[in-house]
Amino acid sequence: MAAIRAEALTKDYGNHRAIAELNLEVAAGEIFGFLGPNGAGKTTTIRILLDLIRPTAGHVEVLGSEPRKGGPALRRRIGYLPGELTMEGRHTARDLLAFLGDQGAEPVAAGRITELADRLDLDLSKRVGAMSKGNKQKVGIVAAFMHRPDLLILDEPTSGLDPLLQQRFLDMVSEAKRDGQTVFMSSHILSEVQQVADRAVIMRAGELLATENVEELRRRSPRSVEFVVAEHPFPDDFANLPNVTDLRVEGNTVRCTTEGEVDALFKVAAKYHLVSVLSTEPDLEDIFFSRYRR
């Protein structure tokens, strides 16, 4: 069963079309990257999935139910981190999370909250109203994960986190998948999800440009190869090889771009005494925007 399914989903705000006939399917148990620049329609889509707003047209199902009909029973199965997290008040992070932990189908143990807080370097004794943006984001992440929900919907989840905590967060996402949870993660930073996503789509101006399997996309994409040999190489040895372009021979160094299989290239290179080999994989962001730039 699909965890999320949208068919011809459309949302208008007056004369502005925020989403245009979006068709989307997220399989249960996968990590799905929902990508695009700010204003692409990502947050609007998420709010429809959660029944925070209603679509103008189209049909959507979340965990087998329509958001409008699923009610509290459906929402208890979802962990949600909004893109704009507002927290005020004099209560501590521990008190807030304990309160939220009691709202699910089963209460969350205090040890679970402490475990997640420790991973994110979150001080639970601090008052949420006095916290920085980064610490409020940590509270939101703990709140989304602590119930071990069937579906995690995360809108710009690493906003305000430093690089070390971003990596810890991505580790938590990978662990959620291993536990059978589905993760739907919105971001305007493609490189943020390339470590963990099974599939990714890119949105632009309310339209879905493409859906890609991340590993397959990487495998098909061009990469830079550079190797150094002990003796001076002959350029003619490498000319006209399949899947090789942009060949440059400078001294004892051979540089080129490859796409697809590299068997022919390295069979020729193996005729020489290889000193070093460097293969550089393009960033997912570069791949997407080179393929779908308008």
TrEMBL record:
It is a peripheral membrane protein. It is found in: Cell membrane. It comes from the Bacteria. The keyword Nucleotide-binding applies. InterPro entries: AAA+_ATPase, ABC_transporter-like_ATP-bd, ABC_transporter-like_CS, ABC_transporter_ATP-binding, P-loop_NTPase. GO terms for biological process: response to antibiotic. Keywords: Antibiotic resistance, ATP-binding, Nucleotide-binding, Transport. The keyword Transport applies. GO terms for cellular component: plasma membrane. GO terms for molecular function: ATP binding; ATP hydrolysis activity. Its main location: membrane. It holds the Pfam family ABC_tran. Residues 4-230 form the ABC transporter domain. Belongs to the ABC transporter superfamily. PANTHER family: ABC TRANSPORTER ATP-BINDING PROTEIN, ABC TRANSPORTER ATP-BINDING PROTEIN NATA. This is ABC transporter ATP-binding protein. It comes from Nocardia panacis. The lineage of its organism: Bacteria, Bacillati, Actinomycetota, Actinomycetes, Mycobacteriales.
